[in-house]
Amino acid sequence: MLEIKTIGEEVLKQKAKRILKKDIIHKRELIRKMTDLMRESNGLGIAAPQVGVSEQIVVIEIGENPNYPNLVKLPLTVMINPEITPIGEEKSDGYEGCLSVPEIRGVVARYKKISVEYTDESGEMHTKEFEDLQARVVQHEVDHLDGIVFIERVHNPKTFITYENYKKYVLKN
């Protein structure tokens, strides 16, 4: 059974290994387990390093979520070896949380619009554009593949907030 690794674990500090196309078929069970764990944990995404596997796999699914009102849904999307290219220079600030940093949120600036080239779980290549919250989630998860946790991207530590206070002061506005 997979468990979520939390900050301080070495696997979250490492650059994850790329996956060879011939090995993708052997990752399906891991992807299924990651998806189940992400859903059970109410996350919008999860990266393989978060479950202790230092490989370039990201799973994202944006549906109804009480932590993120007014979101644009994204069906289950599996990205293997994702490469992000910003579209334009515009960034936006937004609160982020992470399954690997329980109970803490902080404001991070992310590109508003990005293009991502990735391989799916069937071995097919895709190039897709994302914007706003979807772009934020993709950037957040791909950061995990580079050994970066969102708290390293928070420019103003005064924006750190507990999950309870986030619900009380941010979501209620």
Describe this structure in words.
It is a single chain. The protein is α+β, with helices and mostly antiparallel strands and 173 residues long. It has a domain at 10-90 and 112-148: Peptide deformylase (Peptide Deformylase), CATH 3.90.45. The chain has helices at residues 28-40, 132-145, 163-170, and strands at residues 45-47, 57-62, 74-86, 91-98, 101-111, 113-119, 125-131, 161-162. The model has no long low-confidence stretch (mean pLDDT 95).
Keyword list:
Peptide Deformylase, 5-stranded antiparallel beta sheet, alpha+beta
Order of helices and strands: HEEEEEEEHEH
Helical content stands at 10-25%
Note the quaternary state here.
single chain
SS content category: alpha+beta
CATH topology of the domain at 10-90 and 112-148: Peptide Deformylase
Low-confidence stretches: none
- Mean pLDDT across the residues is 95
Number of strands: 8
Brief overview:
With 173 residues, the chain is of the alpha+beta class. It has helices spanning 28-40, 132-145, 163-170, and strands spanning 45-47, 57-62, 74-86, 91-98, 101-111, 113-119, 125-131, 161-162.
Question: Topology of this protein?
Answer:
Layout: H1 28-40, E1 45-47, E2 57-62, E3 74-86, E4 91-98, E5 101-111, E6 113-119, E7 125-131, H2 132-145, E8 161-162, H3 163-170
Antiparallel strand pairs: 1-2, 2-3, 3-6, 4-5, 5-8, 6-7
